[in-house]
Structure formats: structure tokens, C-alpha cells
Write a structure and sequence with these properties.
The chain is built from ten helices and two strands; from the N terminus they run αααββααααααα. By secondary structure, it is mostly helical. The protein folds into two domains: about 60 residues, Winged helix-like DNA-binding domain superfamily/Winged helix DNA-binding domain (Arc Repressor Mutant, subunit A); about 140 residues, Up-down Bundle (Four Helix Bundle (Hemerythrin (Met), subunit A)), CATH 1.20.120.530. Helix 5 packs antiparallel against helix 6 and helix 5 runs antiparallel to helix 9. It is globular, with a radius of gyration of 19 Å. Pfam families: FCD, GntR. It comes from Acinetobacter parvus DSM 16617 = CIP 108168. This is HTH gntR-type domain-containing protein.
């Protein structure tokens, strides 16, 4: 793999591992093989260890003495906690955007809506949610709170891991997500900051429910396979 120059080496390695976790290539409870990662990327094990320390802050892995790094569990309780936290963080972010946007930012919001509509038409669930959460992560200037933004960026990989489970949901559900997020944008553009936060909560609750439904189906399939393998 050719690592890009934009981020530090440890950050690039962390992104590489996080994508394997988000996509399900590395599953919950699995130990991260430092030597395998080092060989795949042609880097030192020390660089991999630095990357794992960064990754631990995103809640995708846990590091244990003498056991190493383990992919974090994704349970219904953890999904609920993740979205409860994101509701508070994203509520603050959209409130600040409502209060501080200028003409060029309003144009960007409209362009975002147009892009999201294209993703809905194409049924591209991953790009739809990626576009929303990436846009919100890039609004440091309008939010003007580096602590909130840093915390949100550290939550983002776990959020991506959760909505990756929804990639097989229906286009009707995707359309519902678009409708809910459009309410957020509409409230921002008329500077109704509290309404924007409430609509963001509705949007997050809808996505949380989709994730929980997908997670339940996945766990049921895993249980069925486990029972068959014991016969």
C-alpha cells in the first residue's frame, strides 16, 4: 500500500486499520496482528504501535496489557451510547452553524443537499452518510470550539463503523434520512438554532434505529451459524 504524505505515518496506518474494522474485515474481539500490518505496509512495528495508540482514542479498539490491541465490541448498548453522545455534539455543531453562517456557507449547504439527493437517487448509502458527517467535521471556523470538534472527529470512525451496517437498508429509509436532514438544513438557513438541534436529534435517532435493526439481524445470523457449526 502506498501511504500518502498528507498525514503523519502513524495517522495513515491508523486510517488503514480503521477501514478494515469499519468494513468488517477485522471483527469484534479480533486481535490486531502488529506484524501483519507492518509487513503489509512495509513499516516498523513501532509505527504500528503508535498508530494503535491513536486508534484507541476513536473507540474502535481496546489495548490490554500482555494481550495487545483488540477490536472493540459493537453491542446495542454501545450503539445507543454512541448516538446519545453524538446527539449532544452534533446538536451543538448545527446550532453554531445556524448562528454564524455567511452567504458562501449557505451556498455550500445547498450544494450539500443537491449532492445528497444524487446519492439518494443512486441508492448510495455509504456516500450519503459520509458526506453529511464529513461536512460537519469540516466546520471548525463556524463552530469555533476546537475541543468539541476534536472530540467529534475522534467519534467519527465509530460512527462510520455503525452506519456501515445499514448499507443493505431500503431506499425508502434512505429517503427518510434525507427528509430529516433537509429539515436540519432548512432550520439552519433561517437561523433557528434550537430547531436545527432538535431536527438533528431526530435524524440521529432515525439512523440509530436503522443501525440497531441491522445489528440485531447480524447477531441473529452469527448465532444461527454458530448453532449449525456445533451440530
Amino acid at each position: 500500500m502506498n501511504l500518502e504524505e498528507a498525514d503523519s505515518l502513524s495517522e495513515q496506518i491508523a486510517k488503514y486499520i480503521s477501514e478494515q474494522i469499519i468494513s468488517g474485515e477485522l471483527v469484534e474481539g479480533e486481535r490486531i496482528q502488529e506484524l501483519r500490518i507492518a509487513k503489509e505496509l512495509d513499516v516498523s512495528r513501532g509505527s504500528v504501535r503508535e498508530a494503535l495508540l491513536l486508534l484507541e482514542r476513536t473507540y474502535l479498539i481496546e489495548i490490554f496489557p500482555r494481550r495487545g490491541a483488540i477490536v472493540s465490541e459493537m453491542s446495542a448498548q454501545q450503539v445507543k451510547a454512541l448516538f446519545d453522545t453524538n446527539v449532544m455534539v452534533l446538536g451543538h455543531i448545527v446550532q453554531r452553524i445556524s448562528e454564524t453562517w455567511r452567504v458562501n456557507e449557505a451556498e455550500q449547504l445547498q450544494a450539500l443537499l443537491d449532492q445528497l439527493m444524487e446519492f439518494v437517487r443512486a441508492g448510495d448509502i455509504e456516500k450519503f452518510y459520509d458526506a453529511i458527517f464529513k461536512y460537519l467535521a469540516e466546520q471548525q471556523e463556524m463552530v469555533a470550539n476546537p475541543y468539541i470538534m476534536q472530540f467529534y472527529k475522534e467519534l467519527l470512525p465509530s460512527l462510520r463503523r455503525s452506519y456501515f451496517l445499514t448499507l443493505n437498508t431500503s431506499r425508502r429509509e434512505l429517503q427518510e434520512s434525507f427528509t430529516l436532514f433537509k429539515l436540519v438544513i432548512d432550520a439552519i438557513l433561517i437561523r433557528k438554532s434550537q430547531q436545527a438541534a432538535l431536527f438533528m436529534e431526530d435524524f440521529c435517532r432515525h439512523l440509530r434505529n436503522l443501525v440497531l435493526e441491522s445489528l440485531t439481524r447480524m447477531k441473529q445470523i452469527e448465532l444461527a451459524w454458530a448453532r449449525r457449526s456445533r451440530r
